[in-house]
Amino acid sequence: MCRRQNCRKRAVLEHPNRGGIRVCKFSPNSLFLVSGSDDETLCVWDVLSWRLLRNLKGHEAFVVTCAFSPDSQWMASGSNSGEIHIWDMSLNFGNCLVKEEVHDLGVAACDFSILYGYDGEPYENGKYLMATCGQDNLVKLWNVLCNGVLSITFTNRYVLSGHTAPVLSCCFSPHGKLLASGSFDKTVRLWNPLNGTAVKIFEGHTRYVTCCAFSHDAVFLASGSNDKTVKIWQIENDSQSEEAGVSSTSESFNQCPVTSTPSSTSSAPMQSISSSMPHWQKPINRWTVDEVCCWLGHIGYSNYEDNFRQNVIDGSELLSLTQESLEKSLRIMAYGIRNKIIRARDFLMEDATPGISSQADFDYTPDEYLCPISREIMQDPVIAADGYTYERAAIESWIKTAPDTESNCQNADTTSYHKLKTLESCLKRNRTANVMRKHIVKIWNSFI
């Protein structure tokens, strides 16, 4: 935690089980900070003293999202198992009143609205509207009705379909009359949550959308993507009224000429690589060193261009690169980066017309399928003593370079069956499953 005025570190908070932190949120009244972890728990911290108030248990998978009701009386949390829990944050502090499975294969995000009813009245008397999204390609809206302090009625209001891939983020506009969602299908969709209708589809990202957020006045919507850009979309042009953001579905929704790429000054979607880089139409073995470096920068490793230039790596040499030559000749020491370059080169070789399609198989790869060490799709996944899943070759290589940790991996404990079942289901549904083995090793006790 840091002070806003001088950005000095104020506190360091850690879960009792020292699990990785997936999400953290302040309550609207600024009294609480909640953090969700890989250890399947949430911690509630007092903002004034940074003291741990309560460790909330009940989830059976990683906690990946949480949200407070507008009055800070309730807190919702979601996990990879697909469950939403709603916790009392007032009179019966830390009491869980709702445990509901809402999305197959996992919840990705959730949010509360400041409005409730079909006519858009403000929340009151324990009536709330909540949105969730998940790995089943759906956005769902829920009525949350509090019956005193002992029970909550949690019912589905709308199921919003339209995305063609897992939905990673959703958020309400500050005035509550719009709902945005971002997905692996590379689109951001705008919905009217009061009647459950689609309003607009924003297209322009070339990789999957990871997050979205409204400006405080709801005039702009920002979306972040794995294509390394943030795009700003204008909701309202000529009116600041809330109604304009809901009723207009045409000219009022234009992409602003702003992205995180400094050279980008156009609102048009990014052109395909094959059209913007004509040399990609040439056979790879005819590429010059400059063209190889251009390709290297496109896949995100421009910092190694000097290494390639010094070793005169042209198209022919690119085709002959191996893990060993990348490490010893080009001094690329990270196993994951070497593997990424080799795989990107192989995709080029497989595609008769190299271009953006050569990386399409990366677009729908959830983070859970990637080895934490190599950051590549796991071919032979194993679960180590720390509870994380790794590519066998990568973790074995890492262990060999850190022998002091080997003894710690000799006594591994079995990971919960629920996690494995969730991962297996994800693999079967995901389009990248054909490159992964069906067998998941539950445990290993030693390294060969």
TrEMBL record:
<feature type="compositionally biased region" description="Polar residues">
    <location>
        <begin position="246"/>
        <end position="258"/>
    </location>
</feature>
<dbReference type="GO" id="GO:0004842">
    <property type="term" value="F:ubiquitin-protein transferase activity"/>
</dbReference>
<feature type="compositionally biased region" description="Low complexity">
    <location>
        <begin position="259"/>
        <end position="274"/>
    </location>
</feature>
<dbReference type="InterPro" id="IPR001660">
    <property type="entry name" value="SAM"/>
</dbReference>
<dbReference type="InterPro" id="IPR003613">
    <property type="entry name" value="Ubox_domain"/>
</dbReference>
<dbReference type="Pfam" id="PF07647">
    <property type="entry name" value="SAM_2"/>
</dbReference>
<feature type="repeat" description="WD">
    <location>
        <begin position="202"/>
        <end position="243"/>
    </location>
</feature>
<feature type="repeat" description="WD">
    <location>
        <begin position="56"/>
        <end position="90"/>
    </location>
</feature>
<dbReference type="GO" id="GO:0016567">
    <property type="term" value="P:protein ubiquitination"/>
</dbReference>
<dbReference type="InterPro" id="IPR001680">
    <property type="entry name" value="WD40_rpt"/>
</dbReference>
<feature type="region of interest" description="Disordered">
    <location>
        <begin position="244"/>
        <end position="274"/>
    </location>
</feature>
<feature type="domain" description="U-box">
    <location>
        <begin position="364"/>
        <end position="405"/>
    </location>
</feature>
<dbReference type="InterPro" id="IPR013761">
    <property type="entry name" value="SAM/pointed_sf"/>
</dbReference>
<protein>
    <recommendedName>
        <fullName>WD repeat, SAM and U-box domain-containing protein 1</fullName>
    </recommendedName>
</protein>
<keyword id="KW-0853">WD repeat</keyword>
<feature type="domain" description="SAM">
    <location>
        <begin position="287"/>
        <end position="351"/>
    </location>
</feature>
<dbReference type="InterPro" id="IPR015943">
    <property type="entry name" value="WD40/YVTN_repeat-like_dom_sf"/>
</dbReference>
<dbReference type="InterPro" id="IPR019775">
    <property type="entry name" value="WD40_repeat_CS"/>
</dbReference>
<dbReference type="Pfam" id="PF04564">
    <property type="entry name" value="U-box"/>
</dbReference>
<dbReference type="Pfam" id="PF00400">
    <property type="entry name" value="WD40"/>
</dbReference>
<dbReference type="InterPro" id="IPR052085">
    <property type="entry name" value="WD-SAM-U-box"/>
</dbReference>
<feature type="repeat" description="WD">
    <location>
        <begin position="160"/>
        <end position="201"/>
    </location>
</feature>
<feature type="repeat" description="WD">
    <location>
        <begin position="14"/>
        <end position="55"/>
    </location>
</feature>
<dbReference type="InterPro" id="IPR013083">
    <property type="entry name" value="Znf_RING/FYVE/PHD"/>
</dbReference>
<dbReference type="InterPro" id="IPR020472">
    <property type="entry name" value="WD40_PAC1"/>
</dbReference>
<dbReference type="InterPro" id="IPR036322">
    <property type="entry name" value="WD40_repeat_dom_sf"/>
</dbReference>
<keyword id="KW-0677">Repeat</keyword>
